[in-house]
């Protein structure tokens, strides 16, 4: 074959060394590429190889930087050393970078994934036993994947090389030493690929049994809107912090000029995407009681609206889910070890994914405004003790003493988080009047037992645990698996609202925020702030509404891996990730001692942390590459 290698880092990536399951079927002494595209069945295996480079965002050792890389989750550092959590602890480095997608060390080799996509696109037309429409559809899927892989890299590294096609083996040494391209050029190329893919993709998969997760029109148009939102955001749009960042030849890699037209492109892309997505039948998720649940209260239903949005497989809100990122193991780490005293010694689930007090504080009051703004909420005494009553029985155990902090919060607080005294509906008990609750102080059935196997900050990520999961015996935890959600309608609504506000269409922006809030019975933004906030005029200003939309997005997408990226694209990471990580004092057995705020870690974030470093060795091999600022 003519095309054998790709220059991605100044290193030649041999096709024979790629992670390709299809290679197992190739007989000896047969040209690999010729064999792979000799018929439809082998070409399909190559197609799935292109899909295989999608990072597994639900892996327990977590290949998802968004999962643990910010300030949502925390663990015991003496027990766990997840690489993305190490990023949150400030341990990124240039000698052996954590989650090194550039060189494929400790993470997927994304450049090899792009190489495989290029090979597929160069050869799919030659397959003899396929109709042209199917060749075009498969090529469109791969163009999308190629766009997504470039998007993944530009989010992580900023300016990157654009790999339009693989280099021939005859390429000179200088041709192999590729250069980074300006971020605007990278985003433009990604959008170009997405536009090329849309016309040949199906609206829906034909066979949901075998094809769910494959790329369709709603996925492509939705991701186009999201890509453009990143390109329009402060990190990439008029970022003066990178004003002098350039290649060795002087090519500037960032523009310091802000361009509002980028937000206008987001508005148009969102409108196009939502038109398609709505026409196909996608809508915001609402939990439907069943024979299993019986009749449930409105409060419990709102809590399950939050949980089910991500855990209810292929529901109407999900636009794209990755079937290669399945969540069975993640759920065992999110679910508490025990839900009753009889489960004290259970080990089927370990509950080690702890959610920080810092994140818990961001959820609204029951009135739909920040707790620090709500004139009716007892903010100054939020760490005092209070005992649950019958009025709170669907949120907090009646008669149980917990922190004032946990009372009178919005439904997403109770749908997303498990906590001492908090109700945990489901898991085999569907009696809404007498559900499970958590008891997590030291010495109680869910209290700290060892260095791991408990939520270090005192909160569990209930949102990621399907409500039907059960612990059947001491060592067995049965979970309802679901694929990791990559894109959903609530995400797009809030991106649309964000863009509308940036171009001065605030009334329409509020309309889409209110659509998301209505899922949980919350009042609209204007009504909530006028009635309950110490700052009632906040929604009436562009800056104020921007703050509201960003907080709404943080809450709605909490624990889904978006905050890590959002803080960066908004350029709010130095503000948020230089605050201490806090939790309750889980070593204590008495409520008055347990509910003392404990600093678990002092985070730090500086300019260099916005982007991954390129490994020093790669810079030596390819002298045309420049390092990211600060490294």
TrEMBL record:
PROSITE patterns: PROKAR_LIPOPROTEIN (PS51257). Gene3D superfamilies: 1.25.40.390. SUPFAM superfamilies: TPR-like (SSF48452). It comes from the Bacteria. InterPro entries: SusD-like_N, SusD_RagB_dom, TPR-like_helical_dom_sf. Residues 1-20 form the signal peptide. Transmembrane segments: none annotated. It is found in: Cell outer membrane. Residues 316-631 form the RagB/SusD domain. It holds the Pfam family SusD-like_3. Residues 81-205 form the SusD-like N-terminal domain. Keywords: Cell outer membrane, Membrane, Signal. GO terms for cellular component: cell outer membrane. Belongs to the SusD family. This is Starch-binding associating with outer membrane. It comes from Mariniphaga anaerophila.
